[in-house]
Amino acid sequence: MGSEQLETIFVDESGDHHQMIEVHELGFVKLIDTMGDDEEVENAARISYGKGTRKVSQTRNLIRYLMRHKHTSPFEMCEVKFHLKLPIFVMRQLVRHRTANLNEYSGRYSEMSNEFYLPQGDYLQKQSKTNNQGRGEDHPRKGALQFEFNRIYDNAMMAYQNLLEEDLAKEISRAVLPVANYTECIWKVDLHNFFHFVRLRSDSHAQREIRDYSDAMYELVKPKFPICCEAFEDYVRDSVTFSASEMEFIRDCVVGDLIEEWARYTDEEFNDEVLQGKYNLSKREMHELKTKLSKKEN
Predict the structure, then answer these.
(1) CATH class of the structural domain 125-178
(2) What is the pTM of this model?
(3) Dihedral of the CA atoms 44, 96, 86, 228 (nearest 10)?
(4) Euclidean distance between the first and final Cα of the chain, in Å?
(5) What's the pLDDT tens digit per position in 176-230?
(6) How far is the C-alpha of 251 from the C-alpha of 242, rounded, in Å?
(7) Which helix (H) or strand (E) holds 161?
(8) Which fold has domain 6-117+180-237?
(9) Which of 91, 147, 171, 196 could serve as 108's disulfide partner, Cβ 3.0–4.6 Å?
(10) CB neighbours (10 Å) of residue 6?
(11) H or E element at residue 89
(12) Which residues are catalytic?
């Protein structure tokens, strides 16, 4: 993960226990509710099967098939709900995921917090010379940079309080606050679109701050949907897509005649059963792999 994060347990007003991960110095991610589990995804796909009628291996094989072939509806039957505390500029990236339901702390009804995000250590980097929306090498004057951040924050909060004391409406007084000001929200999304969010926001090209929140959210969800998350990692997050031309190169120059000769191999380390165990593939996955690598007939 991009930042040092601490996982804790908190108790809500109803006495229920929930997991929480602290993000940066002042933010947090709380997983406050989930609907469904791995078996519910299977049930949604099979419809007719009740709980306890299938083996875990069968559940895993079906979920991996659904993920592999992009059958997304069963994953949409499950949901995750978070309570997040995050800077406004990170919230603006979160809200881009329009399939989620959210409700944010209102600066019209309540006073905004006096907490601001202060980047630390290697988060303070120069502008990248190759990526207009990314960071580059570490900045040598971190102390001077943090002074500028804090100077702005102190002056903005002073101005905000002065405007409130002048009885200016809260909804317009907040306009003087920077986007590093912390806000809070409840954010709920189905499992399929949560995976889409993680694929984009935990990617190495995403801004580090939103990546830290995405990583923390995924860490809390993974124990609730372990088989779904395993399939997501294998077929989406950690997978690579090849173009038609690239696949032609792989078939001709990398694979060659391997697929045609596969059945004749007797090597104890190179047969379907051994390879399925080594790479954790089902029979169907092995068959589909061979199909992908086979030369297409003209």
Answers:
(1) mainly alpha
(2) 0.87
(3) 20
(4) 47
(5) 999 999 999 999 999 999 999 999 999 999 999 999 999 999 999 999 999 999 9
(6) 12
(7) helix 142-165
(8) Gyrase A; domain 2 (3.30.1360)
(9) 171
(10) 9
(11) helix 88-94
(12) 201
